[in-house]
Amino acid sequence: MNIESIKAKLKESSIYHSEENILDNKSVVGYEKKFKWSWMATQLNTFIVVTDFGNQEIDETLIENHLSESFKFSKQNYKGWPRGLQSGLGVISVLISNNISDKAKDYCQKLKSGKKWAGFSIPVVHDSKSQETFQFEKNPMWGRIYYPHFKKLINRLE
C-alpha cells in the first residue's frame, strides 16, 4: 500500500479522489457518498485520508493529530445534508510508515479514536516494511451499521 496504489484503487472503485497536504505531507483523499435503506435510510459521506510519513515514527499523538486534521478537512469539504439529519460523516485516516509503534497499532485495533457528532473517525496504520495493516478488530456499538462498510473500504485499499 502506497499513495500511488491507493489512487489507482480509488479510481478502480469509482471513488472521487484528490491530492492534498495533510500535516505537511503528501496525501490522497478519497470521497464517497452512499445512501442505503439498510443504514436506517441514512446517507453516509466517507472521506478516506491517506498520508505517507516515510520513515517518521507513527505514535498515538501523530494518529490523533492526523485524525483531527482529517476530520477538519472533511467537515470543510462536506457538501451533503446537515450531519445528524439522516446523514453521517465517516473519516478513515490511514497513516503509512515503516516505523510504527506498538501503541499506535493497538490504538487502531482497539479503535480508541472516540465519537463525533453524527461522525466517525477510524484510524488505520500501514507498515510499509512488513506490508501489515492495523485496523479496528470489533465493530463498536455507536455506528455499528456502518463499520462493515468501513472495513470493506479499508480492505479494498490493500
Ranges where pLDDT stays below 50 over 5 or more residues in a row are none
- Estimate the mean pLDDT confidence: 87
What structural class do helix, strand and pairing data support?
A: alpha/beta
β-strand percent reads 25-35%
Number of strands: 7
Structural Rg: 14 Å
N-end to C-end Cα span: 6 Å
Number of domains: 1
The main sheet comes to: 7 strands, mixed
Number of helices: 4
Share in helix = 25-40%
Order of helices and strands: HEEEHEHEEEH
Give the overall shape, derived from the CA principal axes. Answer: globular
Describe what this molecule looks like in 3D:
The chain is of the alpha/beta class and 158 residues long. It has one domain (3-157). Helix content is 30%, strand content 35%. The protein is built from four helices and seven strands, in the order H-E-E-E-H-E-H-E-E-E-H. It has helices at 3-12, 60-77, 102-109, 147-157, and strands at 16-22, 25-36, 42-52, 87-97, 115-116, 119-127, 132-134. Strands 1, 2, 3, 4, 5, 6 and 7 form a seven-stranded mixed β-sheet that branches. Helix 2 links the parallel strand 3 and strand 4 (87-97). The longest helix is centred in the middle third of the chain and has 18 residues, at 60-77. It starts with a helix and ends with a helix. The mean pLDDT is 87.
Structure summary:
This protein is of the alpha/beta class.
Write the layout of secondary structure elements.
Elements: H1 3-12, E1 16-22, E2 25-36, E3 42-52, H2 60-77, E4 87-97, H3 102-109, E5 115-116, E6 119-127, E7 132-134, H4 147-157
Parallel strand pairs: 3-4, 4-6
Antiparallel strand pairs: 1-2, 2-3, 5-6, 6-7
